[in-house]
Design a protein that fits this description.
This protein is of the alpha/beta class. It is built from six helices and seven strands, in the order βαβββαββααααβ. A seven-stranded mixed sheet has the order 2-3-1-4-5-6-7, sandwiched between helices.
Length: 183
């Protein structure tokens, strides 16, 4: 099993953190993992993306042109990465700020209203964990105890009190995923 993932959005949306938590969780599950971030000099507010590969086998290169899954959090990323999802692959997106919905007919497309739900709850910082939960519902690559370990490894110790809140957000995300097009 090898899963090649791109997570893309604005800096400040937790794109890199989401990828890091997923990568650490894979490591905790004894998987081979690659985590490769990419962001502009403006970081917060500019575009950011991270490529994560989780595999049972050795990873030959972290550089990819196509992905099994794309998690898209803004329109610029939709424009750039929708075409990079492999045929039969998965695209998950938050519709907030998306002006052109994905249009491909050869991939599975799901939306998750994570921005709206995090806003309703007054917890904008858990937005990315809601999205991660939606992804993990579709692709349960790592088990919950390893997600917990990934959160412990990724979050600074001073924020470990927020781990239960993050885990609840992941579970919430699993219930918010809405199919738009399933092959």
């Amino acid at each position: 099993m090898t899963e090649e993932i791109i997570i893309a959005g604005f800096g400040g949306q937790g794109v890199l953190s989401m990828g890091k938590i997923l990568a650490y969780s894979g490591v905790m599950q004894n998987k081979e993992v690659s985590w490769m971030p990419s962001y502009g000099p403006e970081m917060r507010g500019g575009t950011a993306n991270v490529t994560v590969i989780i595999s049972d086998e050795r990873i030959s290169s972290p550089i990819l042109n196509e992905f099994d899954t794309a998690i898209i959090l803004n329109q610029q990323s939709m424009d750039k990465f929708e075409k990079s999802v492999k045929k039969g692959g998965l695209l998950i997106y938050d519709p907030n700020g998306i002006t052109r919905k994905p249009s491909r007919k050869d991939i599975n497309i799901y939306s998750i209203s994570a921005t709206d739900k995090a806003g309703e709850l007054g917890l904008s910082k858990i937005f990315n964990m809601i999205v991660l939960g939606g992804f993990l519902k579709m692709k349960p690559l790592v088990n919950p105890e390893n997600i917990h370990k990934g959160l412990e490894k990724s979050l600074p110790k001073r924020h470990h009190n927020l781990i239960p809140e993050n885990e609840k957000a992941i579970e919430l995300g699993k219930s918010l995923l809405t199919p738009e097009q399933v092959l």
